[in-house]
Amino acid sequence: MAATGPDKASAGSQALAKAIERDDPRPLWICLWGGVNTLAQALVDLGAVHSAGEMERLIAHLRVSSISDQNDADPWIRREFPTLFYVAKPSPPNREEYYEATWTGISGDMYYRNGSGAGARLIKTTLPRAWTGRSRILPTQITILKSS
Asked: Are residues 109 and 122 in the same domain?
């Protein structure tokens, strides 16, 4: 939470706060891959200008999906906003269940050899090139490479 607090808003946290405040009955899905300090900052900023009741109303339509706890912002969010819909399978602080973290099931974990059927080769070689522009793979072609 060192990167989060008063006067630490970023363009991302401000955009997220605006999206959360938007008058829209649909759920707002926030998918997290990495540290969640941007979401934490948005919630800190919203909490500074909204009552507890208004905050409950704002977070009621949020749906958060995270690959794991990347830093201390994840547990802080779940502790401070216990009614927030938050999907994650974090490993505990002692890391004894590290192999069960959600992110390892996405690409499989080469070390623990979990995530049977996951495309570890695809994630390790093909997709990073596609994301960095060093490949001509189109998003529609990626589904062809999925494991069956």
From this structure: no
CB–CB of 51/14 below 8 Å? no
| Same domain? 107 vs 123 | no
> How, if at all, do strands 85-87 and 62-66 pair?
parallel
- Both tokens of 148, joined, read 């069956």
Boundaries of domain holding 125: 117-148
Amino acid at 134: R
DSSP H stretches of helix in 11-51? 11-21, 37-49
pLDDT digits (tens, 9 = 90+) for 90-108: 666 666 666 566 555 555 5
Of 80, 76, 38, the closest CA to residue 59 belongs to 80
Q: Which residues contact 15 (CB under 8 A, 6 or more apart)?
A: none
